Amino acid sequence: MIHAQDTKFVSLITPQSVATNATATGTVSCQGFDYAEVFIHLATQTASNVDVTLTLTESDGTTYTTATDLALTTAAPDTSNAQCYKWLLDMRGRKKNLKITYTAAGAARVASAHAILSRAEQAPTTAAGRGVTAQVVA
After folding, report:
1. How many CB atoms lie within 10 A of CB 19?
2. How far apart are the first and last CA of the chain?
3. Cβ–Cβ under 8 Å, residues 67 and 58
C-alpha cells in the first residue's frame, strides 16, 4: 500500500496577489478523512517588518471559531526567501470544516494555500477523488 495514493488535495487559496490590508480565505470539509495537513505558501516580501495575519479556524456549520491549539506564530516576512507554514491536524474529535485566513498588511504579497487530506474512510482511486485534474500512477 502506498499511503500517498490515499490522499486528497484541496486548493484553499489559489495563487494570487493579496493586496495591502486585503484578505484571502479558503475552506475545506474534512468529512470522511481523519487527518489534514494545511499549508500556506507566501512569496518574498518587500519589507521585513510587516505583520502577518494568518489564522486557521474550524466549524461544524457556518460559524468558524479559533481553537487555541490551532494558533500559529509567524515569522517576520522574508525579503529573500518564500515562506511556508503548515498545520498537522488529527481530525478525530475536531470540527469537520477548516478555514484559512490570510491578510497582507503593509504591502501586497503573493499567497497560496492547500490542504492534503488523508486517513480516508474510503480511499480515493480516481484523479477527481484525489482532488486533481489529472494524475499519473507509475
Report:
1. 12
2. 14
3. yes
Cβ atoms of residues 16 and 112 within 8 Å: yes
Q: Residue for cell digits 481530525?
A: 91
Contacts of 58 (CB under 8 A, 6+ apart): 64, 65, 67, 70, 94, 95, 97, 98, 99
pLDDT digits (tens, 9 = 90+) for 34-87: 999 999 999 998 877 777 789 999 999 889 999 999 999 888 888 899 999 999
Domain boundaries, the chain: 3-120
Q: How many other β-carbons are positioned within 10 Å of the β-carbon of residue 117?
A: 27
Length of the chain: 138
* CATH number of the structural domain 3-120: 2.60.120.380
Q: What residues contact residue 89 under an 8 Å CB cut-off, 6+ apart?
A: 35, 36, 37, 38, 70, 98
If one counts every other C-beta atom within 10 angstroms of the C-beta of residue 89, the result is: 21
| pTM of the model as a whole | 0.92
Q: How far apart are CA 107 and CA 109, in angstroms?
A: 6
